[in-house]
Amino acid sequence: MNKRWLISLLITLVLVCVGIFGAFFIKGHMSNKLDEPSTILAEGSVVPEKNETAVEVDTKEVKDIIQDAQKKVVKIELENGSIGSGFLYNDMGDIITNAHVVSGVKEVTIITSDEQRFTGTVIGISTDIDIAVVRVDGLRGMEPLKIRMEKAEIGEEILALGSPLGLDNTVTTGIISGVNRDLEIEPYSYKDLYQISAPIAPGNSGGPLLHGKTGEVIGINSAASDVGTIGFSIPIMNVLSMIKGWSDTPMVDLPGVD
């Protein structure tokens, strides 16, 4: 009886030792296996490093985009009472607008979102492309709107800012509803325009068209259809070299100005 009891005890001890060893072996072996890339992936697939992080898109809330942009969008007034819009392009106080907004004048009044008034001087204007630049010394050093150097696509969300009918700080929303549109509105020729669904009206001219996710400028609002809510915006990337040229070397003689 004692002999059987002793044999049973020895067998139990052996089984316990084997179990403990097996548990440690499986734990150590499997933890290493879990860190290895899966063999289920197709051959040639790229497996990211463990510390690799996803690329983040710099998107913002719409209300934050609007609040930030409105500080850099201005109303432009002429002595004859006509109005338009514009936006800060660089830290030299240069404002981008449409040529038809400031045509025939040298100086205009610039009104900011907080109702400050400054004198602006036209330093560049085209007679065939509806683009002009106004320099406002009182706005030097202000942070400008960011420019997006990518072509917008149909369906992208947009924001149109400006002063339609004199209503300051107006924002309308929509999408890019068409691209590569051409128009002729004497004396200007409009090529490769964005068609937009965001409603715009007289006074919006020269205001920025913003990308709805990033707040970057993608266009200059320039014309609206008489029928329906169809507007047209000049892609900023198409005219940026002209604008930069005027900022670097302002025009001395303006067309139509004595």
Can you characterise this structure?
There is one protein chain. The protein is α+β, with helices and mostly antiparallel strands and 258 residues long. Among the domains are: 62-144, Trypsin-like serine proteases (Thrombin, subunit H, Beta Barrel), CATH 2.40.10.10; 157-241, Trypsin-like serine proteases (Thrombin, subunit H). Helices cover 23% and strands 31% of the residues. The chain contains four helices and twelve strands; from the N terminus they run ααβββαβββββββββα. The chain has helices spanning 2-34, 62-70, 99-102, 236-248, and strands spanning 73-77, 83-88, 94-97, 107-111, 117-125, 132-135, 157-162, 170-185, 188-196, 208-211, 217-224, 231-235. The protein has a six-stranded antiparallel β-barrel. It has a six-stranded antiparallel barrel with strand order 7-8-9-12-11-10. A hairpin with a 5-residue loop joins strand 4 (107-111) and strand 5 (117-125). The chain is globular, with a radius of gyration of 32 Å. The relative contact order is 0.15. Mean pLDDT is 85; it is low at 23-27 and 29-57.
From the structure above, extract its key features:
Thrombin, subunit H; 6-stranded antiparallel beta barrel; 12 strands; alpha+beta; single chain; 258 residues; 6-stranded antiparallel β-barrel
